[in-house]
């Protein structure tokens, strides 16, 4: 009966799960109920404890604890001066070592990870500019120029890239140093290389090049895909960068994404200055004008430079005619969450709340999910020190990682905390992170 | 009722949507609207919204609707269609209306109690940033529920004007929605356009609409289009609209078929949706809150100023020479029409 069903062509919507491609690939006939368990690897969610008994891994609490440790160790709680306009060159190693298969499918196929990194970089640094360089056959060549829009870089990455020859760290450094010399002084210069080769083949003294980079204030970081190499370590130590080695694909992705948020700018690096910028209006549909970037007439949907009235196609860009930097306010607003961060939520122990004779909250204020574990036992939750609303652990991670708004603080015009904010600080179990802003002052 | 995973894989196809409706219940806005006899009253507005919610459920019974009320002092989730129990009340209204109306009434009363000590006159904003944040947290919870989940989107029905103090919070919500690929549709029923909602819909790829005739609001909101087969569309559209018109659109004078907000995301690619009117992307300066065309940006904290300052008021950094770091092209040309300010 199963084989006859398989021969029927895919027509309808809902009855199609019998004809999925996995079925064809498996060859055998999986019953419908078996399919729910086909990808099930439930043995992986168990681990042994001290007495050699199996118990399930509590992923959620572990993930949350990891997240809190990371937040605690990074000094981002305080409003520090971050290098908000980074100019970064990513160097991709295309030597023969990059075609090794220890990372599936090959070390070079980290293009996907670099693409994710580029998107995340522009997300976190809307004013930043990125350029791509590749190293092949002992020479370094520029793949894309410094630019502010992710699509051109991603398109170049998706092109065919062959691996051959040896890698040369010095040539990459020299090339990037030449390009980054022209960057204005308010920009933060960075160099990131994904190094797969176990050695480097350099024409001259690489130590001199490293000193040159250090003098030009270029912060060099390396993400290694092979073993630890002394010269990379030395380079990162000298210039104040980060050297990390990826253990597997997911670790590589994590390491790469660590470089996306703006690094804390060291005081002598970034000279504050006022940059003149223009905020163009978007033209109405149906307006025909000659676009200054492509030199051809275009219909509708462009932006007009406020100084010289030239039409540009996309933002952010520099006007080709008068050189004014053009941005739109959402681009700048992307960075405002660094300036006005959300206060860290404090962990709350339900036993303390019951001693205060306060009701244990039933639902998370953000997602309305029940805060009680099955069996009506209270689970783990956190509270905002300013508005004293309770949130589940997943909302905590989402709010601080992506949303940057506390729903409780935003939903209350006049925050009147249910319990005193000072008491809430003492209620937290374990180590308490002292928040930069005093909650009692904000709550009044 | 949560279906087992294998059952869910059969039921959840492309066109199941999760619709978060953010309803503006700001009493200051509705009070001035009631005083103005030609505009919509809150009760007729609610009847349009309830009919619209009903139509969403009619299109696909698995569609999930959550209503969040945006008040003046607080925000609250007033209705979640996944929690409703099927119960018919005494006067024949199905439970879906009863619970929503009951919660909404309770919410409005509580909201009013909170502003006993505040006397506001004129136009005041509601807490849109709060309800947007709550909607996004809920959507994240739906994303976490498994690989198969309905397609989420947010619909803001807003009448109150924009509050400039919520700018950063609303922009944060918009970028988070953009990253999670959740479109924000806006239906503005107030007198003036909302710049925040225009930007929200533009950035997230939603639809922005300011209806001309508010008594036809239901027709602006509703639409039948969850079938992928084009021939079915016309047939079903006719049948459904006839039904709707016969039952609800007695007061409507609008003969256009405006089909906008009820469509699920996959069907939007085949529809002619209202074109964006144009989005005002200009920024406001931090010193005077004027909208400016050209300004100066602090390189450390990105605050916007309309004139040159010695020190940044946001981050306190002292600036170096103003023109020495500008790009070469900038230095070469003198701007002919740049605004001259009395103070350097």
Automatic annotation (TrEMBL), chain A:
A zinc finger (C4-type) spans 305-322. Residues 1-27 are annotated as: Disordered. Keywords: DNA damage, DNA repair, Metal-binding, Nucleus, Transcription, Transcription regulation, Zinc, Zinc-finger. GO terms for cellular component: transcription factor TFIIH core complex; transcription factor TFIIH holo complex. The keyword Nucleus applies. It is found in: Nucleus. Residues 12-25 have a biased composition (Acidic residues). Pfam families: C1_4, Ssl1. The keyword Zinc applies. One of its GO terms (biological process) is nucleotide-excision repair. It comes from the Eukaryota. Residues 87-274 form the VWFA domain. Belongs to the GTF2H2 family. This is General transcription factor IIH subunit 2. The lineage of its organism: Eukaryota, Viridiplantae, Streptophyta, Embryophyta, Tracheophyta.
TrEMBL record, chain B:
Residues 322-344 are annotated as: Disordered. Residues 330-344 have a biased composition (Basic residues). The keyword Transport does not apply. Pfam families: Tfb4. GO terms for molecular function: zinc ion binding. InterPro entries: TFIIH_Tfb4/GTF2H3, vWFA_dom_sf. The keyword Acyltransferase does not apply. Keywords: DNA damage, DNA repair, Metal-binding, Nucleus, Transcription, Transcription regulation, Zinc, Zinc-finger. One of its GO terms (cellular component) is transcription factor TFIIH holo complex. Component of the general transcription and DNA repair factor IIH (TFIIH) core complex, which is involved in general and transcription-coupled nucleotide excision repair (NER) of damaged DNA and, when complexed to CAK, in RNA transcription by RNA polymerase II. In NER, TFIIH acts by opening DNA around the lesion to allow the excision of the damaged oligonucleotide and its replacement by a new DNA fragment. In transcription, TFIIH has an essential role in transcription initiation. Belongs to the TFB4 family. Component of the 7-subunit TFIIH core complex composed of XPB, XPD, TFB1/GTF2H1, GTF2H2/P44, TFB4/GTF2H3, TFB2/GTF2H4 and TFB5/GTF2H5, which is active in NER. The core complex associates with the 3-subunit CDK-activating kinase (CAK) module composed of CYCH1/cyclin H1, CDKD and MAT1/At4g30820 to form the 10-subunit holoenzyme (holo-TFIIH) active in transcription. This is General transcription and DNA repair factor IIH subunit TFB4. The lineage of its organism: Eukaryota, Viridiplantae, Streptophyta, Embryophyta, Tracheophyta.
């Amino acid at each position: 009966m199963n084989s006859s069903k398989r021969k029927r062509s895919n027509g309808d919507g809902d009855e199609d799960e019998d004809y999925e491609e996995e079925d064809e690939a498996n060859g055998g006939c999986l019953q419908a109920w078996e399919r729910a368990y086909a990808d099930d690897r439930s043995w992986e969610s168990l681990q042994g404890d001290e007495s050699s008994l199996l118990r399930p891994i509590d992923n959620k609490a572990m993930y949350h604890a990891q997240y809190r440790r990371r937040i605690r160790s990074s000094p981002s709680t305080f409003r520090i001066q971050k290098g908000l306009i980074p100019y970064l060159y990513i160097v991709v190693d295309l030597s023969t070592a990059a075609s090794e298969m220890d990372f599936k499918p090959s070390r070079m196929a980290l293009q996907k990870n670099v693409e994710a990194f580029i998107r995340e970089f522009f997300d976190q640094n809307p004013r930043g500019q990125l350029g791509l360089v590749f190293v092949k056959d002992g020479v370094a060549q520029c793949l894309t120029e410094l630019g502010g829009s992710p699509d051109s870089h991603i398109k170049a990455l998706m092109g065919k890239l062959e691996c051959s020859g040896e890698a040369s760290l010095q040539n990459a450094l020299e090339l990037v140093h030449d390009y980054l010399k022209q960057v204005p002084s308010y920009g933060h210069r960075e160099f990131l290389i994904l190094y797969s080769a176990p050695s480097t083949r350099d024409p001259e003294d690489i130590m001199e090049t490293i000193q040159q980079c250090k003098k030009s204030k270029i912060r060099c970081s390396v993400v290694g895909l092979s073993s630890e190499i002394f010269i990379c370590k030395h380079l990162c130590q000298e210039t104040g960068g980060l050297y990390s080695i990826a253990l597997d694909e997911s670790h590589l992705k994590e390491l790469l994404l660590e470089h996306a948020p703006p690094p804390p700018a060291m005081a002598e690096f970034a000279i504050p200055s006022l940059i003149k910028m223009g905020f163009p209006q978007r033209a109405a549909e149906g307006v025909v004008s000659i676009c200054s970037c492509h030199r051809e007439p275009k219909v509708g949907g462009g932006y007009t430079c406020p100084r010289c009235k030239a039409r540009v196609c996309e933002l952010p860009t520099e006007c080709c005619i008068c050189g004014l930097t053009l941005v739109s306010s959402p681009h700048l607003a992307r960075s405002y969450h660094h300036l006005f961060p959300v206060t860290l939520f404090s962990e709350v122990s339900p036993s303390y709340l019951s001693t205060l004779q306060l009701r244990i909250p039933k639902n998370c204020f953000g997602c309305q999910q029940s805060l009680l574990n099955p069996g009506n036992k209270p689970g783990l939750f956190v509270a905002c020190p300013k508005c004293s609303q309770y949130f589940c652990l997943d909302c905590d991670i989402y709010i601080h990682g992506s949303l940057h708004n506390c729903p409780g603080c935003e939903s209350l015009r006049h925050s009147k905390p249910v319990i005193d904010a000072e008491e809430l600080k003492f209620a937290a179990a374990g180590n308490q992170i002292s928040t930069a802003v005093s909650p009692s002052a904000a709550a009044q | 009722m949560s279906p087992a995973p294998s059952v869910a894989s059969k039921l959840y196809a492309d066109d199941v949507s999760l619709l978060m409706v953010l309803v503006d219940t700001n009493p200051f806005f509705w009070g001035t609207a009631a005083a103005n006899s030609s505009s919509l009253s809150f009760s007729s507005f609610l009847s349009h919204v309830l009919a619209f919610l009903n139509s969403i459920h009619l299109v696909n019974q698995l569609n999930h609707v959550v209503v969040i009320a945006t008040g003046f002092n607080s925000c609250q989730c007033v209705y979640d269609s996944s929690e409703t129990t099927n119960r018919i009340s005494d006067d024949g209204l199905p439970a879906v209306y009863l619970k929503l109306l009951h919660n909404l009434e309770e919410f409005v009363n509580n909201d009013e109690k909170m502003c006993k000590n505040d006397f506001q006159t004129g136009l005041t904003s509601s807490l849109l940033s709060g309800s947007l944040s709550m909607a996004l947290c809920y959507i994240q919870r739906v994303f976490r529920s498994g690989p198969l989940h309905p397609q989420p989107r947010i619909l803001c029905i807003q009448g109150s004007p924009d509050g400039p103090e919520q700018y950063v919070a609303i922009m944060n919500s918009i970028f988070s929605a953009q990253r999670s690929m959740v479109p924000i549709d806006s239906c503005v029923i107030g007198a003036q356009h909302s710049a925040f909602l225009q930007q929200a819909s533009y950035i997230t790829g939603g639809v922005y609409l300011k209806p001309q005739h508010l008594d036809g609001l239901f027709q602006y909101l509703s639409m039948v289009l969850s079938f992928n087969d084009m021939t079915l569309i016309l047939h079903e559209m006719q049948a459904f609209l006839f039904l709707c018109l016969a039952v609800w659109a007695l007061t409507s004078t609008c003969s256009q078929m405006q089909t906008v907000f009820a469509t699920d995301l996959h069907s939007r690619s085949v529809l002619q949706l209202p074109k964006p009117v144009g989005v005002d992307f200009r920024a406001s300066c931090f010193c005077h809150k004027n909208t400016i065309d050209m300004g100066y940006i602090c390189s450390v904290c990105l605050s916007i100023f309309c004139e040159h300052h010695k020190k940044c008021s946001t981050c306190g950094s002292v600036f170096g020479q103003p023109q020495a770091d500008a790009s070469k092209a900038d230095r070469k040309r003198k701007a002919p029409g740049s605004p001259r300010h009395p103070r350097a």
